[in-house]
């Protein structure tokens, strides 16, 4: 199979297996999604979803969050890891949203990526899941599976993202990146991968 044929097979199979893909991080608006995605760095979505209700009960908007002490935020989010850095970023970006964007999350790539603690992947998730703009956020699951399926030989997530955007139609990106994440967790894990439980790998390697 060519890379293009592999990509077409992967897209068909994922649509068959995951016709509906709920957003894994619980949120109610662009701001709470932004905070949840920031917290998910080097932390599982499951753990983030356990922590955010406690955090959002205290502050679910930039004004209330900026009014908290950084130490208060840090205490709540500690189970997510990297708490000092994340707490400082959450506090600072909330202040910037208040001062520069009327308390709203900007629907703009450059503005999002300029916020503390917000890299390209986080901005991609917010642009795709909160605002519906075509984006292909590449996390470790997607980076790993793109290599395993022969879709990318990227040594970093930036190159993998470029390869996947070339292979898949733009109108599939937002749903497809979630489908790949679900598939990676459920059928194609990094450890304990069994070919017989993985319909994509078993087909591509046959």
Q: Level of helix content? A: 55-70%
CATH class bucket of the largest domain: Mainly Alpha
DSSP strand content: under 5%
Q: Give average pLDDT, whole number.
A: 96
CATH architectural arrangement of the largest domain: Orthogonal Bundle
The CATH homologous superfamily name of the largest domain equals Hypothetical protein, domain 2
Rg? 18 Å
- How many structural domains can be distinguished in the coordinates? 2
Major pleated sheet: none
Low-confidence stretches: none
Order of helices and strands: HHHHHHHHHHHH
Roughly how many Å apart are the termini? 11 Å
Helix- and strand-based class? Answer: mainly alpha
What is the count of DSSP helices, taking H or I runs of 4+ residues?
A: 12
Number of E-type strands: 0
Q: What does the overall shape look like?
A: elongated
What fold name goes in the CATH topology slot of the largest domain?
Endonuclease III, domain 1
Can you give a write-up of this model?
By secondary structure, this protein is an all-alpha fold. It folds into two domains: 3-22 and 135-204, Endonuclease Iii, domain 2 (Orthogonal Bundle), CATH 1.10.1670; 30-129, Hypothetical protein, domain 2 (Endonuclease III, domain 1, Orthogonal Bundle), CATH 1.10.340. The chain is 61% helix and 0% strand. It has twelve helices and no strands. It has helices at residues 3-17, 30-39, 45-58, 62-67, 70-77, 83-100, 109-113, 120-129, 140-148, 157-167, 173-186, 199-204. Helix 2 (30-39) runs antiparallel to helix 8 (120-129) and helix 9 crosses helix 10 (157-167). The model has no long low-confidence stretch (mean pLDDT 96).
């Amino acid at each position: 199979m060519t890379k293009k044929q592999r990509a077409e097979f992967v897209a068909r199979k994922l649509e068959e297996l995951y016709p509906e893909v709920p957003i894994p991080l619980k949120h109610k608006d662009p701001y709470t999604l932004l905070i949840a995605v920031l917290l998910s760095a080097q932390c599982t979505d499951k753990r983030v979803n356990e922590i955010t209700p406690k955090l959002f009960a205290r502050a679910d908007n930039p004004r209330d969050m900026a009014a908290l002490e950084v130490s208060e935020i840090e205490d709540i989010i500690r189970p997510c890891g990297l708490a000092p850095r994340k707490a400082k970023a959450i506090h600072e970006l909330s202040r910037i949203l208040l001062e520069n964007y009327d308390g709203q999350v900007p629907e703009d790539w450059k503005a999002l990526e300029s916020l503390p603690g917000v890299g390209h992947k986080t901005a991609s998730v917010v642009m795709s899941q909160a605002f519906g703009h075509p984006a292909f956020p590449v996390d470790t699951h997607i980076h790993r599976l793109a290599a395993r399926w022969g879709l990318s030989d990227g040594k970093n997530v930036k190159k993998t993202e470029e390869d996947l955007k070339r292979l898949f139609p733009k109108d599939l990106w937002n749903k497809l990146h979630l489908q790949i994440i679900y598939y990676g967790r459920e059928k194609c894990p990094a450890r304990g991968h069994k070919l017989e439980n993985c319909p994509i790998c078993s087909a591509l390697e046959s």
